[in-house]
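input
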Amino acid sequence: MNTLRTAMLLAAMTALFMGVGFLIGGSGGMMIALVIAAGTNLFSYWNADKMVLSMNRAVEVGEKNAPEYHAIVQGLAERAGLPMPKTYLIDNPQPNAFATGRNPQNAAVAASTGLLQALTHEEVAAVMAHELAHVQHRDTLTMTIVATFAGAISMLGNFAFFLGGNRDNNNPFGFVGVLAAMIVAPFAAMVVQMAVSRTREYEADRRGAEICGHPLWLASALDKIARGAERIPNLDAERNPAMAHLFIINPLSGERMDSLFSTHPSTENRIAALQAMARQMAGAAQAAPRQAPTPRQADEQRPSGPWDQVARPEQPAEPAKPKPNPWGRNPTGPRGRWS
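output
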């Protein structure tokens, strides 16, 4: 289903791209736009993830220089039945994270240094579980391609002013077509981009809570990230706003409304949904007959990862709340500018 939706989205974005070309240069402009769209499709599929990571100045890390962060992602990937993604770190004080990659075998997750410094082990695990949910749902390809297309269409709209003034470009709409390309086309691309992100965030929240086992961990993390994003600007995201929908919380300033014009659902709505999920899980645990596990069963049920000391094989009667469990040491290790 996700493959079909991605194909339909690509077709819609290509048609929009061709429409912008027709407004700017008539039939000739439409054909040029088609060629550009085809090239953008190919480039996005193979290289958009690398471009997104580069634009955010993400640095790949591993067991040696980010052992705790790497171990959290590894443990969660095993629980979700996913290949281990590459782990990246962004030297940025704003707490945030995103996932990218064309499929689970070529996926990457990225967290900011601000995220690792502001959140507890449990909350970091919940955020990474959310990002792995995007990988499992194969949202990363769609979201990355949309970011590339939205940026390309916006750039084409900016070129309309210069290209549309040529009388020999066979533009049937004249100045009206140029004006439409400059304003309407980038706006339409933005609407598509925002709508895609909003529907997927709720699904990733739900699946991420299932992977980490505690919806309230993610609810607490979302609250902290949202408050941090309000106070701390993300200059890289501000320079490239077409990437905003990739992040778990909108990194741009001034976006707080749950409407068609926001890249994410409101944080309050997402937290409310996670709290409702936690109550349902607690009710199911109370209704289920309890049987004391044998020592061997308890060992088999215990998840692996740095949060072992706080996880339990059974869901408690009351929803678990994140405990104050800060990183015992600098999570990025002794290396790097952020140490």
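quick obs: The first strand starts at residue 58 and ends at 61.
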